[in-house]
Amino acid sequence: MAACISSSIGHDDHYSSNKFDESRCKRYFDFSSYENNDPLVNNVHSIKLPCLKMVVGSLYLAKDNPKKPLGDDAYFIYEYYQTIGVADGVGGWAKKGIDAGIYARELMRNSLIATNNEPKGHVNPKRVLEEAYKNTNYEGSSTACIITLNSEKNTIRAANVGDSGFFLLRKGKIIYKSSIQQRGFGCPYQLGKCNDNPTVAKEMELIVKKDDILIVGTDGMLDNMNQSEIEKIVRRAIDDKLKAEELARKIGKLALYNSLDRFADTPFARASRRKGGKVDDITVIVAYFQ
To answer: Which one has a higher pLDDT value, 203 or 92?
Structure first.
């Protein structure tokens, strides 16, 4: 059994930090779109490819908050089932004295358990979310994104709720970006007993090829990284033959740098109509298809 779990009612809370702390790269509980006319989505049954597997690396940088050292993000990697997931507890719950990071971590723990009950090679991400949601009883709420590889069809299936998500790259170019689900700026769809449930999850299935690269993250990464920056880092990683873990660290460090730059032109800056990055927990998972 090989898996890793690490660890918004309203808007995300922000704080500032001034340096990258290597000790904040943590792993917890270590268990050793485009539209419907996109050909990536519609042709998943028409092309046969050699069997693939995901080789995965990750990075988690929690915000520098002594009161919440584990932050609000959570993730799991279940290599045996070729399934990964990320979650981001909604920081607005802190105003009610509730640590949404606990909800996110339990949601990912329960997603791992639910994955273990799925048929190997045929994991249904939405069903995993449904089971995890049913068994998570803490107060709070969280975004969530579950992705699995079907090695027989060479497709990835995903179920996404909120503003966590992923990029799929081929030869250093982004060929797919998951869409964001939100009711307004800073108010993503979120799983929780008083919020949304998995019926709102957006499902997708995409063909993958050998040497494709999947980059999954919470909004701490997505809000602070432009697509051009992702592509540049990935192309350099390909040239330098970096491992998945090394690429995850490169992406996470640049996301952190941008989050602290008050003048950076980031996706968050454009959405909020002000300059600068967004200081937040940052989770990055990188999967190489080999």
So the answer is: 203
Instruction: Return the closest-CA partner of residue 44 out of 178, 175, 152.
Output: 152
Q: Which residues pair with 222 in a beta bridge?
A: none
Are 74 and 84 in contact by the 8 Å Cβ rule? The answer is no
d(CA 120, CA 113): 13
Instruction: List residues bridging with 76 in a β-sheet.
Output: 5, 85
pTM: 0.84
Whole-number Å distance between alpha carbons of 252 and 75: 15
Q: What is the pLDDT of residue 57?
A: 98
Tokens of 123: 């994991």
Measure Cα distances from 23 to 5, 20, 27, 89 in Å: 17, 9, 11, 22
- Residue 47, pLDDT score: 45
Look at residue 50 in the predicted model and tell me its pLDDT.
62
CA dist 91 and 137 (Å) reads 18
- What pLDDT, in 10s, does the model give residues 271-281? 998 989 999 99
Determine the straight-line distance between the first and last CA of the chain, rounded to whole angstroms. 20
How much is the average pLDDT of 90-116? 95
Query: Is-contact 108 141, C-beta < 8 A?
Result: no
* Neighbouring-strand partners of residue 210: none
Mean pLDDT, range 172-199, rounded to an integer: 92
Q: Tokens for 177, please give them.
A: 């970006």
| DSSP track, 65-78 | -TT-TT-SEEEEEE
